[in-house]
Write a structure and sequence with these properties.
7-stranded antiparallel sheet, alpha/beta, Rossmann fold, 6-stranded antiparallel sheet, 3 domains, single chain, Glutamine Phosphoribosylpyrophosphate, subunit 1, domain 1, 589 residues, globular, binds fructose -6-phosphate, 23% strand
Length: 589
């Protein structure tokens, strides 16, 4: 959700900014801009659309600059609303949301100040310029003191043309020394390079990038000593390696990732502390959003069935406003790929205040969630570039199912085995190519439905979300038994219905719903581990996936659904990696 990059040093800034912005494009891609200064003149180039729109700006000369990819929150997608925003001697790029922007703007307008955009970010430029008394750091600290909300800022001032000032509050920001210069970015991948020493700012911290030194301080201007980040250059790489899209590549990465996620589970540094809590817990709450919420639902099915421990799964944005009951001894599991989802972080802060022990199932190292949580269980999915989550979902399941295995042993239940899941996923990926043949039935459909029971229902929810977000085809995921309670009214001749059937003792029940839909003209597609259902007359097409413990089956059954979404999106002419209106990592409420 928006990306920031900045550079000051000996090299030409523009190519560094533009290359960094390509790395950040998955975070936001409705408009883009850079500001580059040669010490005398500040050149600003802004365009709507993607980073390639400003390719020509590569030739701009200057050793200091800031850049931004935008995902609109305040104001339409226009050049005026694109960053950098300027006022008087100030230019800045901003991620996050200023919640009191309207009130601040009204005051500034009543003082005669003129605004050129509808953004909250422009308000910050005004506050800094108005407060500037010869020290940019002071002006930024003063302005931030007036802001309510979240921000990551990189600020340039034409009166101090050799420095950038950066600030962070609830929106990630990394600063550090790179080759021949100093860098700032909202995401490691934009600035990570051989030999770089990078630091992740904490909330309320400010950094000055000048000369060959990065200095970090708090709002009282007390110096803060930072620990350098450990990063793996390979992990941050975003190469298509011959694939057309990251989404398809990321699906192919799943088997190896599952192996890593499971293998490293007990190697997480907090594992023994987490294990101690797990031994005592009688009640688990899970908070997450979107796809991560669905992995939470999958975990609930498996934990309750196999460990007989009560689990409640709550959408994070609801949790935070529900005055949740958090009994003593509650283990709260927060699931997040990015570790920066604002709603999830807010839910975690609330749960902590109420006394819960928080374990994070998270993919991104140094993310905000990793700092808030009492225990961090990494998913080892590597960088996920496609906006639609695929491999991170499976990796979350690998970690959550590892928790299930541990908890089952603690509860003296038969410990379920995860062995073979990675190999079975590889097999599932190869058979899932068959869904390409399903696309003609979905491309022109008005809507589609996904049904299942238990764990299959969780996979249905995720399959439906994937389809709608990248193909823009309205779709619903349902408990198979619920279809007849209302949604059946929407089934018309030709409506695609995908049934997921991996559990023997509810298979016939799901098939009842299939028959009901089929009798109303639905076209039936199956994802199942039982060959006999594939042969049935009602079934238009099917994918036969390997069998595994039914409670763990979403890790396999979701794969053909991810592939279906991908191929339908392609057939409908969409870019599966960058769906409209969406962005990776939703850092605003
Ligand atoms: C869907 C998708 C989103 C995210 C959700 C939470 O494909 O990616 O629904 O799952 O925004 O994001 P994280 O996991 O980063 O907290």
């Amino acid at each position: 959700m928006c990306g920031i990059v900045g550079y000051v040093g000996k090299r030409e800034a523009a190519p560094i900014l533009i290359d960094g912005l390509y790395e950040l494009e998955y975070r936001g891609y409705d408009s883009v801009g850079i500001a580059v200064s040669n010490g005398k003149e500040l050149k600003i180039i802004k365009k709507t659309g993607r980073v390639k729109e400003i390719e020509a700006a590569r030739s701009e000369r200057g050793n200091i600059g800031i850049g931004h990819t935008r995902w609109a929150t305040h104001g339409d997608v226009t050049v005026e609303n694109a960053h950098p925003h300027t006022y008087k001697n100030i230019a800045l790029v901003h991620n996050g949301i200023v919640e009191n922007a309207r009130a601040l703007k009204e005051e500034l307008v009543s003082n005669g100040e003129i605004f050129y955009s509808d953004t909250d970010s422009e308000v910050i430029a005004h506050l800094i310029a108005d407060g500037y008394r010869g020290d940019l750091l002071d002006a930024v600290i003063g302005a931030c003191g007036k802001l309510i909300g979240s921000y990551a800022l990189a600020v340039y001032c034409s009166d101090e043309p050799d420095a950038l000032i950066c600030a962070r509050m609830r929106s990630p920001l990394i600063v550090g020394n790179a080759k021949d210069g100093l860098v700032v970015a909202s995401d490691l991948s934009a600035v990570a390079e051989e030999g770089a020493t990078l630091y992740s700012l904490d909330d309320g911290e400010f950094a000055r990038l000048e000369g060959d030194e990065v200095t970090v301080c708090n709002a009282g201007k007390n110096a803060v000593v930072k620990e350098a980040m450990q990063f793996d250059l390979e992990e941050g790489k975003t190469k298509l390696d011959g694939y057309r899209h990251f989404m398809r590549k990321e699906i192919d990465e799943i088997p190896e990732i599952l192996h890593h996620s499971m293998f490293n589970f007990e190697k997480n540094s907090c594992y023994s502390d987490f294990y101690r809590v797990l031994c005592q817990t009688e009640y688990i709450q899970i908070v997450a959003c979107g796809t991560a919420y669905h992995s939470g639902l999958c975990a609930k099915v498996a934990i309750e069935k196999l460990c007989r421990v009560r689990v409640e799964v709550v959408v994070a944005s609801e949790y935070r406003y529900s005055n949740p009951i958090v009994p003593k001894g509650t283990l709260l599991i927060a699931i997040s790929q990015s570790g920066e989802t604002a709603d999830t972080l807010a839910a975690v802060r609330l749960a902590k205040r109420k006394g819960a022990y928080v374990a994070a199932v998270v993919n991104v190292k140094y993310s905000s969630l990793t700092r808030l949580a009492d225990a961090v269980l990494y998913t080892h999915a590597g960088k996920e570039v496609a906006v639609a989550a695929t491999k991170s979902f499976n990796a979350q399941l690998a970690v959550l199912y590892s928790i299930v295995g541990t908890l089952a042993a603690i509860e003296k239940k038969r410990a379920p085995t995860l062995r073979g899941l990675a190999q079975k996923t590889a097999k599932t990926i190869s058979v899932s190519e068959e869904v390409r043949g399903w696309t003609p039935y979905f491309v022109g459909a008005k809507s589609a439905y996904f049904i299942g029971r238990g764990a299959d229902m969780c996979a249905a929810l995720e399959g439906s979300l994937k389809l709608k977000e990248i193909s823009y085809l309205p779709s619903e995921g349902y408990a198979a038994g619920e279809l007849k309670h209302g949604t059946l009214a929407l089934i018309e001749p030709g409506t695609p219905v995908v049934a997921i059937i991996t559990r023997r003792n509810t298979a016939e029940k799901t098939m009842n719903a299939v028959h009901e839909a089929y009798s109303r003209g639905a076209r039936i597609f199956l994802v199942t581990s039982f060959a006999e259902y594939c042969e049935m007359d009602e079934v238009c097409a099917s994918v036969l996936i390997p069998r595994c413990l039914p409670e763990f089956s979403p890790i396999l059954s979701v794969v053909p659904l991810q592939m279906l979404a991908y191929y339908v999106a392609l057939a409908r002419g969409n870019d599966p990696d960058k769906p409209r209106n969406l962005a990776k990592s939703v850092t605003v409420e």
